[in-house]
Design a protein that fits this description.
The protein is mainly alpha-helical. The chain has four domains: 106 residues, Serine Threonine Protein Phosphatase 5, Tetratricopeptide repeat, CATH 1.25.40; 81 residues, no CATH class; 60 residues, no CATH class; 110 residues, Leucine-rich repeat, LRR (right-handed beta-alpha superhelix) (Alpha-Beta Horseshoe). Helix content is 57%, strand content 5%. It contains 15 helices and seven strands. The strands form two sheets. The protein has a five-stranded parallel β-sheet, with no helix packed on it. A hairpin with a 2-residue loop joins strand 1 and strand 2. The radius of gyration is 27 Å and the shape is globular. The mean pLDDT is 85.
Amino acid sequence: MIEMHGRVKVKTTAEKEAEKEKERKERLIQYTRLLDEVKDKRKNKECFQEVLDASKQVLLCNPDFGTMWNVRKEALLQMEVSQDQDAFQKQCLVELKLAADCLKCNPKSYGAWHHRIWIMERMPCPDWAFELDLTQKALGLDSRNFHCWDYRRYIVKKFGQDLHKELNYTSELILENFSNYSAWHYRSHLLPELCPDPNGTWLLSEEKRLEELELIQNAAFTDPEDQSAWLYHKSEKVLAALTSQLQSCQELIELEPESKWPLLTSVNLMRAIDPLQYKDEVNMVLQKLKSVDSQRDNFYTDLKSKFLIENHLQQVNWHAGSISFSEMSLSTIYCADSLLLFRVVDLSYNELKSVSPLAALQCCESLNLQHNCLTSCHGLECLPFLKELNIAENLIDDVNPLKECLNLKMLKIAGNPVALKVEELGDSLKAIVI
């Protein structure tokens, strides 16, 4: 409001919109300037701190800018080897503070949560107890933030938190609010580990099932319209129903062994009940389907690859830093986003035809794709930290896209058509071919 001749003049709607538009344009100009500043500093290889300072301003404006988080990781990896532990520990604390500030702007920012995990993995002296307490405070503000729940599960594994304490934590949350579906869901994952059925018939022991049913009944009687407890209750009944359906399906297969749909249905049921328990049976049925339904041979081959990868991920050590799928007869890659934090990935001696899904490997430093059926390396140029790449014994005719991999130091191409014309490669690639 402006005072003129003793009278207050109120701004019109058009004037207010014009001011807002002016502010938006000014913010856009500033944002664009910051982006150019980061790009120039990175290109000119200026000191790490200047790159970090510039990218910080961008991320505070836009926490979901994945490239900026990668720029920071690139600088931090250099700092990790050039600084002493105390200095790098201080920088890690700065990174955690930045991630926290970004999460205040957007509590469900994928980039900020992933960066926090990445920092905790490299931090010389990580404070796991503090992080666990942080998730408790964050979930107190929003109990449905699945990013925070995932982060808590990660911290629990790294910290070695007693799972009984975690179960008690879910009890507290449920008693506070019976509608806390996330707490019910977390509880459903904890109980099979803590109270398994000794006979293997059910997920839980009989004693624990009765206790859980009592808890569910209390929730249902407190608020009969709330679906969370009912969905949790349903999971026990679903397992029994699926097992019964599988038995019926297998009886039908005995009568009609060449019928496609009972075979495929049995695969889906076994995967739903227990994918690891039934892995051999699933493979046998898929092989049978390839002969019964030969027109979809490739579909069943890819489906087998999907199941093999999912099974492997259930048993992998998520904190090892490396993962191997070598000699698994994989025809394609599924669940590539689950490999985000691995630095060493081995996919050698498979039957892969495309690397496109591997663009998700944003932390990968060493990638082995030897002896596959690849005809192109398009997609690998998106990996910012890739240092070592083995694509030997494939069908690749062109590796020029790899010029974009600025950190690539070693490239194996023997056994590819492109290996016959090394002299035609650019200087940057010729220098790293072995």
